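Minutes, project huddle
Topic: does the predicted pose make sense with nicotinamide-adenine-dinucleotide bound?
PN asked that the exact inputs be recorded in the minutes so nobody has to dig through chat later. Recorded below.
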Amino acid sequence: MSITSVGVVGSGIMGTGIAEVAAASGHQVIVRSRSGASAEAVRVGVARSLNRQIERGSRTEAERDEILARISVTTELKDLADVDLVIESVVEDLTVKLELFEELHAVCSEHTILATNTSTLPVVDIGMATGRPGKVCGIHFFNPATAMSLVEIVHPITASDETIAAAFEFARACGKEPVEVEDRAGFVVNALLFPYLNSAVRLLERGVAAKEDIDAAMVGGCGFPMGPFALLDLVGLDTSVAILDALYEEHREPQCAPAPLLRRMVAAGHLGRKSGQGFYEYKRR
Ligand SMILES: NC(=O)c1ccc[n+]([C@@H]2O[C@H](COP(=O)([O-])OP(=O)(O)OC[C@H]3O[C@@H](n4cnc5c(N)ncnc54)[C@H](O)[C@@H]3O)[C@@H](O)[C@H]2O)c1
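Predicted holo structure (tokens), as shared on screen:
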């Protein structure tokens, strides 16, 4: 099946980015958030991102207006009833996602594919919470969704080949390079990335080097575009702890047990860029 309309559930970092990517590639997009203010914040966030592209000369004002016109927002899940594809991108918490997918199954048309943007959680469980596990898969975008070319298409054992083919077609239509991955905690990228990020926090805890020096070392020594602390702040420390918890739960590997400092920072509300304070300080916009 070909996907022309997309519902996005969740208005955080990833929901906003996915809404922009889908609308910029010609899809009709409807974003559902729990409050009117945060739903509206998605349109503001997308407009800000498009304005930056205009400043850089990679977009025209007419294109911005067309893209924004394709995005509508709602606080009602039932407004997503007729879309071809829903991409869920709410907090990385299995209980929350299971409840949401049960509701999505109840409100969405039979033909709708239900996808999760989870970073680590078992997609099979999410599928089994619905009455349509054959139509549930993972479509895992990377942050920032507008800039990163990879999309992991997560294939739980319950998903049909048609669902996976439609997810591939959608990701390609968004200008992304999809790869198929099995439904294992962390899939490919986060299974490799998060033990590294967690190890960086442990180095810091042991006083091996300052965070700025660890970041500079990985940029200068490995050619990474940013160091581990800048990346943890970009991902969000609450999301990072949730990812590590899920990796540890499944693999029981010590390097996946969240470093204590990460949990303390989350408890203090130091979530990274999104809260204005993480390993570094950020100006709130
Ligand atoms: N941050 C990243 O780098 C990244 C990258 C890829 C995938 N993801 C995944 O995307 C999803 C969202 O992450 P994010 O970074 O956008 O997080 P975020 O913190 O920016 O946004 C989370 C969203 O979930 C909503 N939410 C919180 N509790 C909820 C509840 N009980 N019911 C319904 N909605 C609720 C919030 O209102 C917000 O809209 C997660 O599954 C995460 O693992 C994150």
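Observations noted during the meeting:
- The CA atoms of residues 200 and 228 lie 7 Å apart.
- The chain is about 45% helix and 15% strand.
No decisions taken; revisit at the next huddle.
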